[in-house]
């Protein structure tokens, strides 16, 4: 996530962080369904409208790091070194994301998400949005260009690799296996050489 530079931006970021931290603590203590937006606002000492100015929904409070996940995936494409192959750059980033989500701190949140149909549905729509952003980054970055279908398929496979690995007994082995398939499929989409 981008670090805010001005005083006002830093204050807004601090308020957002305080609301998200408060919400997560309450959700984990009392249960996601037992806590309302008013409870979060009261505990964080902000107005309900302030909560909604930072978060579009109650579900968004759980996935506060959503933007950071999306930025990391797209930056793996747009920020890689010149001539660095695409698939290994994405592979490396997904492995790092999976390691992060498997920390002891993330386990209670993962259990809460898994137990809530509303949170699972929100996460699924969020992952589709990440895949679309990644597909856009791929289409803008590739030389030689690939079709929109190839970019969208790769993006979906990358996001799904994360989801499959996160729930596996050996997450890194799953990431590696899926990325071997992704690499092979990506090579098939390479346009034929001219000349």
From TrEMBL:
Top-level taxon: Bacteria
The organism's taxonomy opens as: Bacteria, Bacillati, Actinomycetota, Actinomycetes, Kitasatosporales
PROSITE patterns per record: HTH_TETR_2
Q: Which Gene3D superfamilies does the entry link to?
A: Tetracycline Repressor, domain 2 (1.10.357.10)
- Please report the stretch or stretches of sequence annotated as the HTH tetR-type domain: 13-73
State the name under which the record lists this protein: Transcriptional regulator, TetR family
Alphabetically list the UniProt keywords.
Answer: DNA-binding, Transcription, Transcription regulation
Q: Which PANTHER family match?
A: HTH-TYPE TRANSCRIPTIONAL REGULATOR BETI (PTHR30055:SF234), HTH-TYPE TRANSCRIPTIONAL REGULATOR RUTR (PTHR30055)
């Amino acid at each position: 996530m981008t670090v805010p530079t001005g005083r006002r931006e830093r204050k807004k970021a601090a308020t957002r962080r305080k609301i998200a931290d408060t919400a997560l603590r309450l959700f984990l203590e009392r249960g996601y369904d037992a806590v309302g937006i008013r409870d979060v606002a009261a505990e964080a000492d902000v107005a309900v409208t302030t909560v909604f100015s930072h978060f579009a929904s109650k579900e968004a409070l759980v996935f506060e790091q959503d933007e950071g996940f999306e930025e990391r995936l797209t930056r793996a494409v747009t920020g890689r070194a010149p001539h660095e192959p695409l698939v290994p750059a994405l592979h490396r980033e997904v492995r790092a994301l999976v390691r992060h989500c498997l920390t002891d701190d993330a386990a209670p949140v993962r259990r809460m998400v898994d137990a809530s149909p509303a949170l699972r549905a929100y996460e699924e729509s969020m992952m589709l949005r990440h895949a679309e952003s990644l597909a856009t980054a791929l289409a803008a970055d590739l030389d030689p260009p690939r079709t929109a279908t190839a970019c969208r398929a790769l993006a979906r496979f990358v996001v799904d690799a994360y989801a499959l690995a996160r729930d596996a007994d050996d997450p890194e082995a799953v990431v590696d296996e899926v990325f071997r398939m992704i690499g092979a499929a990506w090579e098939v989409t390479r346009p034929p050489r001219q000349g």
